[in-house]
Predict the 3D structure of the following.
Amino acid sequence: MSDLMEKIVSLCKRRGFIFPSSEIYGGFRSSYDFGPLGVELKNNIKKAWWDEMIKNHDDIAGLDASILMSPKVWEASGHLSAGFADELVECKECHKRFRKDFLEENKCPDCQGELTEPRKFNLMMKTFAGPVEDEAAVTYLRAETCQGIYMNYENVLNSMRLKIPFGICQIGKAFRNEINPKDFIYRTREFEQIEMQWFCRPSRINANSARLVSRGSLANKTRIEEWGTDEWFEYWKKERMKWYLDLGIKKENIRFREHVKDELAHYAQKAVDVEYKFPFGWKEIEGIHDRGDWDLSNHSKYSGKDLSYFDEEAKEKYIPHIIETSGGVDRSLLAFLIDAYEEVKGARTKTTKASKEEEIVLHLDKRLAPIKVAVLPLVRNKEDLVKKTKEIYQLLKTYFICQYDEVGSIGRRYRRQDEIATPFCITVDFETLKQDDVTVRDRDTMKQERIKINELVKTLKEKLEN
Ligand code: GAP
């Protein structure tokens, strides 16, 4: 593991972002638990994504489908066939197993031993629904959340009185029996997806049925011709990149990579990965896929239910095509953490004795920061100061996720908050008792300003929203 990754893993454990699962039993197969700060960060990422999809785009509806579905879903989707399998090789000496495409040489990376011939290994996680463990009870933990969306395509279309094009978005857990989970939370067997499926007409039938529709969410907010898959693919590529950049990912650390023909997933006609420059290389954090009519055609065929769409205006019937944006909460969380991480050499907080030590600052976007405001008495041995600080803390915690801290020097407490990305520290000092104001310290600029207590909520709201 690189130096930077070791530091991130250590920070995550030390400050309550991410812990190894079942740690007292030695951990469990690259599974992780999100601690008090990790769950806040994760929730903030999910909220930012949900708001982006639901508030910033017309014609997208939300869904929360079940993890367990009929096994027929996975037959129809192609996930039970060889298409959703990785090639596994085993070392004949140490018996460790590896994904073939992860190996640089045709020998064991650990002991240099000879490897077996590759065999296909399906990634679906099998389980039983009900008490009897026989073939009839076999089902699978979902490998991608979008299949739950396809199962509800007609329900949402009809109940929400939507017209094509429209989208359905969902956040939820997915499971894959990965051969080599690795790189901390980057590749795990249980992970969370943020997926949006955009149902639209195929580009090829665009010409004879072009009509004008209002798309308030489009960048130029003008009336445009209705698009087909090719146009929507480009549109969603741009929208997704904008989301990551807006939430603070540095431009030089993110890029698109188009899939070549032979790496396309079994369902995809075209695919572009959004890649982040992790310390272990450029890696996918989100996939944008043109799934064509693969899913709805197959589900129509396997279920016997016709899922085609009749366009009243164009008098056309067709199976909707799908452009999907499929991201991972865990992978984007790791990218946000790495991108925000800064080590400052020398004194940033001059009042600390330890000012010669390295200071860590997490410059997470304010929307993502787990704790929004820290409330600190200047000293803790003055009763009236502590009492006033606790009153202010009680007031603020009804509006923001706050932390009260009185332990250690004020400089050390600023450092503790910088390390977990808290955008603002409120310090209650002796002036507060006379003037009813406090200092508000900004994490990134370290500037402090005095704000009246009766204006504190309003000021913090404004600062956090900007
Ligand atoms: N519905 C399409 C689909 O699932 P994918 O490219 O296989 O496409 C989409 O996965 C996203 O899900 C990835 O970009 C990644 O963020 C996340 N993901 C996939 N496998 C993962 C794993 N083993 N661990 C963590 N995240 C994973």
Observations:
- The domain at 365-465 is CATH 3.40.50.800 (Rossmann fold).
